[in-house]
Amino acid sequence: MGKLDDKVAIITGASQGMGASHAKLFINEGAKVVITDINEEKGQQLAKTLGDNALFVKQDVSSEADWQKVIQTTLDHFGKLDILVNNAGISFNKSLEEITVDDYLKIFKINQLSVFLGTKYAAEAMKKNGSGSIVNISSMNGLVGGAVGYTDTKFAVRGLTKAAALQLAHDGIRVNSVHPGVISTPMIHQGDSEAVIKEFAKAIPLQRVAEPEEVSKMVLFLASDDSSYSTGSEFVIDGGMTAQ
Ligand SMILES: NC(=O)c1ccc[n+]([C@@H]2O[C@H](COP(=O)([O-])OP(=O)(O)OC[C@H]3O[C@@H](n4cnc5c(N)ncnc54)[C@H](O)[C@@H]3O)[C@@H](O)[C@H]2O)c1
């Protein structure tokens, strides 16, 4: 028996990185999974390898119309919605002086507005079941300062998680945030060289970056009934970074 038997999940930004890892684990645990991403080629490829319990839908998470389309497609294809993982996100490492208003609005829309839209429309569908779990991927930079723009959005995701959890508790819908440290995905490999990442790992109490699969286990816990009494809470998975 899987931990997600008979559950239907949407995972955003799941064509690669942590989202793809969550999708694989969810399928192995018995879920039906809608993988969404702007990267259609990789998303279709992944869905194909995962079989009939996976469906790829192209989505820009910052578009309200795309959210409505994704929720409707999920209901049409799999009949209901139990779990949403708001995972899609971008980062950039520009200084305060370098960041333009366009940069700022872009990261706001993809990292923050997306979580508001996803929570709003997923909750509507979940209310029909009288239950649901929304897992919002923030960051350790939702707890402590980091890059301007990125940090702001990840703190906001933490706040939205608590506000939505309070509002949705009476509908049996739980909302929690996950705060990863440095995880080995294309996001960090695009931005930094292997040497920089190795150097950075020395500052992590556990002395290494993590693999996406380590985060997937925490996301599975929050998505499943194993976390039935957790809502509005922060789940940190950062090798000790924020304990320093
Ligand atoms: N990797 C880390 O060290 C780390 C640490 C803390 C938090 N996070 C967060 O975890 C989440 C996943 O990160 P990752 O490292 O797997 O990143 P990644 O870059 O490997 O994957 C992100 C995915 O999101 C997709 N995406 C980007 N913009 C999108 C949009 N507008 N609509 C839909 N999809 C879009 C990309 O195509 C990509 O497939 C992000 O929210 C990120 O901020 C990552």
Automatic annotation (TrEMBL):
Top-level class of the enzyme under EC nomenclature: oxidoreductase
GO-annotated molecular function: glucose 1-dehydrogenase [NAD(P)+] activity
Superkingdom of origin: Bacteria
Keyword field: Oxidoreductase
InterPro entries on file: NAD(P)-bd_dom_sf, SDR_fam
Family matches, as Pfam families: adh_short_C2
EC number(s) reported in the record: 1.1.1.47
Family: Belongs to the short-chain dehydrogenases/reductases (SDR) family.
Name this protein carries in UniProt: Glucose 1-dehydrogenase
Organism: Lentilactobacillus raoultii
